[in-house]
User: Which sequence fits this backbone?
């Protein structure tokens, strides 16, 4: 047979998949799931966040399988997610119940409860640490032991302390409006596709599962000038929150009978954004509004950027693209954007032939007019 | 921790959800039904809309054919087939006539389909008005208000600029005299195959989360003006260099030996069929 460009696809694919496996194995090293879970915390967190599936174990497996490619790992997790039935929705989480590991405010130095730096890269010098090249277990164990000993000498509180929200303090001062709690059940965007205009519950879901880079870029664009939101970070907190579900078939529900199913670590951000509002006398007044950001794991940049975009999308009257919900919400999903970009690698023989034909016909027509 | 996947990948709840969207789409020909598109084990933009439809309607006794831009052996078609077969165990075929479900990217087979068959088309951009209006909120409104002036104007502007309509694949169609629909990027050559089709046509856009349909025996007309009628890709005077077929959609190739342009059936299964028929005829006559 003559030249058939697309024959033999089956064998070619098999060979390609084999080659891929070879690339992963050829170094003859094996990375354990546990190693990934305990040494690549930030990556595991990011994969869980972008894939909307909270499972450090599966995220680590995905990272291993994807050879560390973020988009691939998220993709694997999302596809796995499609096979899981969803029997329950959790109860609303009150983030005041967070077991706080880190909590800072850029608005007030002296917040009730105090600033708690926790673990962060923020104050490290970004110098390559060449000592890590010859890191060994023995030294590490020694370090850990010393650290534990140091902690012994610190004075402890007898009771578990919960941190109040910074914004509560400002609400009491009348700087923030007190809103009624909106208890409308959220729309599940994985069960129902987005319809415009969206509700806030839909927007927050899309933003929290957005690709970290995309959310950060758009948040930055808004902050830099392509948007009208200039926030101050009221509070960033990182920590574990407990998750409860209702009894599935008990008619009468009470808080005591809810089931605790585990805890998840999240980063939560409340940004304070001054906005102009009209008062009763039709005069403009400044008031603070809250931009809200939250994501799985510790990913503060993403959560802060999300809080900016949340506030942007609350103000659709502005002409900037960062205030346009279709522009923001339809383009930040990792699986969607990487999928459609990569589909350009598929053959387009028919469509291109059709385009060629169209151009040739047009050219023919033009020549006729000239002659 | 190792889990076996369910029949046809999805849990039954998801399948039902997708089937419900399909039913609605069939009931309103050409209307884009939103659905909660699932993430699939193949990439968005690689046929996940079609794949979700196929997986939600396929049964154990069905025979499946998958084509990509006309070819059964194209890498992506092979990949999709493999996934469906691994999760369902259904029989696969290259023969258009033998298939119950045909999932296709950007082609409708040359052989006329029957009422026993369903063709599932993969759609990258389901919105025929997207070139006219970027916002989904607005395009949805335009459809509901039967406001298609934008898309007519687009064709008119092409005539003003180029002397003729200059659409390539995905030339918009009117379905059942009501909805303007993107037929998916099939060549204009294939548009006529949708009109009064005996087979049910289902279209799935995974990334854009829409399902729509052309039920059997539905009118499908390509948008055109009386004085500028709809035209299809022209292969006048050309034929397939392998099987000699004419009046089919051809791929343009370059003969490596002579450097000349040659043509070949785009529908590889049709080409094989023609070649086999020819060979059979030759064998028969030589024995006679």
Assistant:
């Amino acid at each position: 047979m003559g030249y058939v460009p697309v024959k033999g696809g089956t064998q070619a694919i098999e060979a390609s998949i084999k080659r891929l496996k070879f690339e992963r194995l050829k170094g003859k090293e094996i990375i354990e799931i546990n190693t990934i879970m305990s040494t690549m915390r930030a990556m595991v967190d990011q994969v869980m966040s972008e894939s909307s599936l909270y499972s450090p174990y599966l995220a680590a497996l995905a990272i291993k399988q994807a050879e560390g490619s973020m988009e691939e790992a998220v993709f694997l997790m999302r596809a796995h997610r499609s096979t899981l039935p969803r029997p329950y929705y959790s109860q609303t989480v009150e983030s005041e119940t967070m077991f706080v590991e880190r909590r800072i405010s850029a608005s007030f130095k002296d917040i009730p409860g105090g600033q708690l730096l926790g673990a962060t890269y923020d104050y490290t010098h970004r110098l390559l640490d060449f000592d890590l090249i010859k890191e060994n277990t023995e030294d590490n164990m020694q370090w850990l032991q010393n650290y534990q000993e140091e902690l012994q000498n610190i004075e402890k509180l007898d009771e578990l302390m919960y941190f109040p929200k910074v914004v509560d303090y400002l609400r009491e001062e009348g700087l923030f409006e007190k809103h009624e709690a909106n208890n409308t059940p959220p729309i599940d965007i994985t069960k129902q596709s987005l319809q415009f205009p969206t509700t806030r519950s839909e927007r927050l879901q899309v933003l929290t599962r957005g690709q970290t880079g995309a959310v950060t870029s758009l948040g930055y664009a808004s902050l830099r000038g392509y948007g009208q939101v200039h926030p101050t970070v009221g509070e960033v907190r990182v920590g574990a929150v407990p998750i409860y579900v209702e009894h599935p078939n008990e008619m009468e529900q009470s808080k005591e009978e809810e089931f605790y199913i585990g805890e998840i670590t999240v980063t939560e951000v409340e940004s304070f954004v001054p906005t102009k509002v009209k008062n009763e006398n039709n005069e403009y007044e400044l008031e603070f509004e809250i931009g809200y950001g939250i994501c799985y794991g510790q990913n503060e940049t993403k959560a802060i950027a999300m809080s900016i975009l949340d506030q942007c999308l609350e103000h659709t009257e502005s002409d900037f693209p960062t205030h346009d919900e279709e522009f923001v919400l339809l383009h930040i999903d990792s699986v969607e954007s990487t999928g459609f970009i990569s589909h350009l690698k598929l053959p387009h023989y028919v469509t291109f032939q059709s385009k060629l034909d169209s151009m040739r016909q047009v050219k023919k027509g033009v020549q006729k007019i000239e002659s | 921790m190792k889990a076996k996947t369910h029949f046809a990948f999805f849990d039954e709840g998801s399948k039902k959800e997708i089937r419900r969207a399909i039913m609605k789409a069939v009931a309103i020909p050409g209307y884009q039904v939103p659905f909660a598109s699932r993430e699939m084990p193949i990439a968005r933009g690689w046929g996940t809309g079609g794949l979700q439809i196929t997986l939600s309607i396929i049964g154990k006794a069905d025979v499946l054919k998958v084509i990509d831009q006309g070819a059964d052996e194209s890498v992506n078609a092979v990949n999709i087939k493999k996934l469906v077969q691994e999760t369902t165990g259904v029989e696969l075929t290259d023969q258009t006539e033998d298939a119950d479900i045909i999932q296709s990217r950007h082609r409708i087979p040359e052989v006329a389909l029957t009422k026993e068959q369903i063709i599932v088309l993969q759609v990258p951009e389901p919105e025929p008005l997207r070139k006219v209006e970027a916002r989904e909120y607005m395009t949805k409104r335009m459809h509901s208000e039967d406001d298609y002036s934008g898309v007519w104007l687009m064709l008119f502007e092409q005539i003003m600029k180029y002397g003729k309509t200059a659409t390539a694949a995905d030339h918009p169609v009117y379905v059942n005299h009501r909805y303007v629909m993107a037929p998916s990027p099939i060549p204009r050559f294939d548009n006529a195959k949708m009109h009064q089709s005996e087979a049910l046509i289902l279209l799935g856009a995974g990334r854009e989360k829409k399902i729509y349909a052309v039920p059997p025996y539905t009118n499908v007309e390509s948008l055109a003006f009386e004085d500028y009628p709809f035209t299809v890709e022209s292969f006048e005077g050309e034929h397939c260099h392998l099987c000699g077929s004419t009046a089919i959609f051809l791929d343009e190739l370059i003969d490596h030996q002579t450097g000349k342009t040659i043509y070949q059936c785009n529908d590889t299964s049709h080409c094989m069929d023609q070649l086999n028929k020819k060979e059979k005829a030759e064998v028969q006559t030589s024995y006679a």
Remarks:
- The first helix of chain A runs from residue 9 to 25.
- Chain A touches chain B through 59 residues (CB under 8 Å).
